Predict the structure.
Amino acid sequence: MKINIFKKAALSAEEKKRRNKDRLILILSGALMGFSFPPFPFPFLMFAGLIPYFFVIERKEKLIDINRATYLMAFVFTLTSVYWVGAWQVGRDPFLMIAGGLLMFINPIFFLIPSTLLYFARKIFKPALALFFFPLFWITYEYFYMITDASFPWLTLGNGLAYFNTFIQIADIIGAVGLSLIVVLLNVFLYKCILLFKTEKRNSYLFGAAAFVVFIVPVIYGAYRINTIKISTKTVKAGLIQPDLDPYEKWAGGSIDDMADDYFALSQQALNKGAELLVWPETAFPVYLFGGHHPGTAGKLYHFLQSNNVSLLTGMPDIIYYPPNAKIPADAKDNEIDGFHYATYNAAMLVDPHTFDLQRYGKMKLVPFGERVPFVTALPFLGSMLKWGVGLSGWNVGQDTSVFNVNIYNTTPKNNASFFAQPGSPVVKQKIKINGIICYESIYPYLIAEFTKKGSELITVVTNDSWYGNSSGPYQHKEISALRAVENRRSVIRAANGGISCYINPLGKTETATQMYTKGFLVCDVALQSGLTFFVQHSLLIPVGASVFSLWVVGLYILLALKRKFYK
């Protein structure tokens, strides 16, 4: 007798009706979660968005059925919130669109981590008890997704709460992932409250009260912090430059000198408004400006900075050559013809007008496929197979969280000062420490915390969100920075090529911002903070604790499975 394992049993009319109803419920759940993210002003939807999903999976007994339901919910969640990833609106680069399309189907797979762990927990504990562990399983998924080579943790639930400013203040203790824990726990309590309302009113009220407590504690704490936190009087006047260059045209080739003239003109306007530090966006020039091949433009840049006695933080492609006996990074490229190694980075650089010694930082969190092919170190052939049309897919991974030491000068030489002549003795008004976060990295809370631990007084983000048009993406990216401001209690300034450039204060409130696709600048008096929040000091407490618990559940499940197999 032949058995076809792929043949599904025919469903009755009633079963088909139930299946279709479940699908609609799961679509509703995913849509509620997606519409809770910026720019939609409905963060409250997140507090109940998983309830429909729970009603479906709690009736499923088989792992495959639980995961099918989870995938559908997660797919709709992904589609409604990060539909923009393929940059369908502008450019229409084929590789970027393919990568974005694949993300729509790959991202939901990671949501199967908490649902699978829930299934394991049901086999170990009572099914009614297992759901209470689901918030820990969800945190395990969010943390695991952050540390893999193919990570895209954009949909960390805490990121979606940026508009609820009072609620997110507790992130200085628990971080964005801790906020995710609260969100999922609220959903569990509210689900239990609704489920038991008709049959066990007393327990229903208890769960309702528990949900209220879980919600109100962050609100009370947030109101307290907003009214008591002290914003430092130590400030720096930052000039944020937004040139609004077309990124596709820029990387296709254009006049570097014309680009430089745009930057100089906007920067001069910012300096005329009193800017003490200039910040240019990610990959301000599409060339290795300081690699020795563009001495004319590099000279003009230095001359401009020295003439105005101002330091510059800028995004910039960087290339480093390694002599034969040097310590070479594991992912360095090999020039077989000339026999040397080199590495290229999507970098941030601090350019001081009075020294040629650049302070460099190479981007450590690269966009999967867009900037680096996942697992390319282990599988090198993937690098030659997958390359983005604008040539950004081969960056090396940065090696360290570098903090820049910035000199803020208080003397301004005349504009006709000769290149690198010493215009008297430049007087340093103040010395500050800042970082140079590059674009996508701002969604990683634990990475930013490392910069703060090293003394950074200000979070700077250089970015280029113009790839994605005037979609939800740039607005979400900007609002995610509000979480980083609260977690670290640091000001955040963003210099974005086409927007949104802004200044966010340590309470996560936007003080000033540009519009998308406008050319201009901002000059902001930015507060410089010191001290370390509880989150910065103990940032891994919640995710590692949740992960350890989840691994324990997996271990118990395996032991019980082995016991059932060998000791029947």
Summary: The longest strand covers residues 311-322. The first helix runs from residue 13 to 34. The chain has a mean pLDDT of 89.
